[in-house]
Amino acid sequence: MKRIVLDPGHGGSDPGALGPTGLREKDVTLAVAKYLQQELQPLGSIYMTRDKDEYKSLRERVDLANNLKADYFISIHCNATTNRAAKGTETLIYAFGKEAEKLARKVQTRLVKVLGTQDRGVKVRPGLYVLAHTAMPAILVETAFISNPEEERLLADPAQQQSIARAIVEGIADHLGMHLRPVQTKEADEEVERAKVIYEGKALEAFIKDGKTYVEVKKLCEMLGLKVMWNSSTKTVEVKR
Asked: Per-residue pLDDT tens for 50-68?
């Protein structure tokens, strides 16, 4: 069993990058890390550098991992730039040629496959404190560009946040040569009747429960040509034309 430290980037007085609609990086990273913590339980003992919206210095984060003698350090972030067209996923490491690179490549492969984002590859960033001062293999995952309107919507979606977490878990499991059990969804555990919603010839998967038909809001709105934005602070879905 492994000791893994998860590091949700930013927090507290440090919001991180902001998306076009005001989505805060610190909220996305914490949400992903919480999903990740749950998913990683079968692999060992999981620790968080923060489990709420609070500020922790880079040194505090690194010291926690080093004092625990963790096997791996996984830092979660969202990329950002002034160019809103920039997009994609990348994973950062301290140097090539070590175990961190092997882990990063497994995680990167899984993330790109699951999210369908542009593969920006594994990159070396020796100047990043959490990569330079951790005593164990450490990676920093730049999940997607919060500055890109389309990818901001992806990062704001709880279902996509969970997919990001699952992809990272699968990458870690690949690296360790372990097999994970499939995720059991709530619908799989309950008696539900499958259905379809059809609009202008396009079909959307749905299910019926207690006499009501359920579909994913984002997919339905996209089918109707509407824009969907998620505010993680107020837990509100806003639909616009």
From this structure: 999 999 999 999 999 999 9
